[in-house]
């Protein structure tokens, strides 16, 4: 069955960086566009970034542009979200989405 397992979250100070990973299995990863979403406490889940199946096209929400980079390695069935210049408002549970959802990984930006 479809499995998406996120990792790489944690506690980071404002201005710091984290790289999230999402390991996929149970489906033909290389033919699916993949997306990252996040959900902050008390807020709705929001889309953050997306990448096309072959990796040539990426897109970002306005708040992520210039700070986050989405990438993928189809040989490893993994999608990444590199996050730089993190802000407290980036604190959320981050989810990857393909033909299903992962369980999420917590990112906390705090001094």
How do you describe this structure in short?
The chain is mainly beta.
User: Could you give the order of strands across the largest sheet?
Assistant: 2-10-9-4-5-6
Question: Per DSSP, what share of the residues sits in E-state strands of 2 or more residues?
Answer: over 45%
Helix count equals: 0
Helix content: under 10%
Shape: globular
Question: What does the radius of gyration come to?
Answer: 13 Å
Give the overall average pLDDT. Answer: 97
Largest sheet: 6 strands, mixed
Q: Could you give the order of the helices and strands?
A: EEEEEEEEEE
Q: Report the strand count.
A: 10
Query: Structural class of the secondary elements?
Result: mainly beta
| First-to-last CA distance | 40 Å
